[in-house]
Amino acid sequence: MVQIKSTFVFLLFATSLSVATPHKRTVAKVEADIATISSSVKNLDDLITAYPATGGTLLGALNIHTAAVSLISSLVTGTSDVTSTGPVSVADGTTIFNAVQAIAPTIGDALTGIVAKKSSFAALPIGGIPALILQDLTLLRGNTTAFSNALIANAPESLVAEDTTLKNNILAAFVPAIAAYSS
Fold first, then answer.
1. Residue 155 gets which letter from DSSP?
2. Which keywords describe this protein according to UniProt (predicted)?
3. CATH 1.20.1410 is right for the domain spanning 24-182
4. pTM, whole model, 2 decimals?
5. Spatial CA neighbour of 140 closest among 102, 171, 180, 105
6. What is the DSSP annotation of 77-111?
């Protein structure tokens, strides 16, 4: 019985130690997170593109919301992993920058598309969808900002200006979309 108790106490201690100790992430994990974010952005853009300008359905609108929530989750995970990774080399920073830069046009397309479809969302028989989209846009902008800030904080000094410009361009694309759903 004493053997079982001491083994249990040891396992409990080891488990609590591993939970309390932050795990350093790797650049490969950050790159995988960016790939997940890219996939989530593409899915969201595809759903927005497929949503009709008139005669849309509640299910279609909710699918867009679900995709936005998935993207938000991916951004939260990515931000955590970037923060845990710490500073990166110039080569890794360049790879990360290029991966994020490749996503930017799709983000712009999705945001332009969501503005174009506003009247279709507003015409749905159940109200509140435009308010839900505004909430999603606001959360997406906030989490995109956090992710970008984490990347910039860990970027090599030689890439900070480029990273900051990319961040500002992406965030600027949110302005007309949020304005459209705020009125």
1. S
2. Signal
3. yes
4. 0.86
5. 171
6. HHHHHHHHH----HHHHHHHHHHHHHHHHHHHHHH
